[in-house]
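Protein Entry — a single chain follows
Next Lines — sequence and tokenised fold
***
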Amino acid sequence: MSRIGRMPVELPKGVSVDIKDGSVAVKGPKGALTQAIVDYVDVALEDGNVVVTRKSDMKQARSNHGLMRSLISNMVTGVEKGFEKQLEVIGIGYRAEVRGQQLVLNLGYSHPINFDIPEGISISVDKSNKITVSGVDKQQVGQVAAVIRDYRKPDHYKGKGVRYVGEYVLLKAGKSA
């Protein structure tokens, strides 16, 4: 049995779960999320906990068992506390700022990059070099942070670019004369 899948998801105060029509809906103080129930598993609400069980012992059923439990756990955490990723912009002349519903990035190109902030995500910039992406959906927060990082990945020679806070970039030696 899946070690992750067999653990029940505890519901904190203020978070409610509704299971019907092949989907799980979670509501909390920060918002609401919905997820379709994947094949080969059942989801039930027992004693204030969400319990995920699998219908058979097939390989796909075992994979989906842990997956569904993790998705529900992330939804509960998201609507209660939220998720956030932090990026830092490193380089001379590299800047970031929020203008309305757009993140404007100056990353050494001939033009600024205007990134439209998606619904459900909030972005803040501290001191024009630290970007914080936050929201209730873990997958969406990670995807938005990855898209912003892809505009200028860290350079392996000078270290310039957009990187996650705490990310280590191995700098290569340049040419020697």
Notes: DSSP finds two helices and 13 strands in the chain. The chain has a mean pLDDT of 92. The chain has two domains: 9-80, 83-164. The first helix runs from residue 59 to 80.
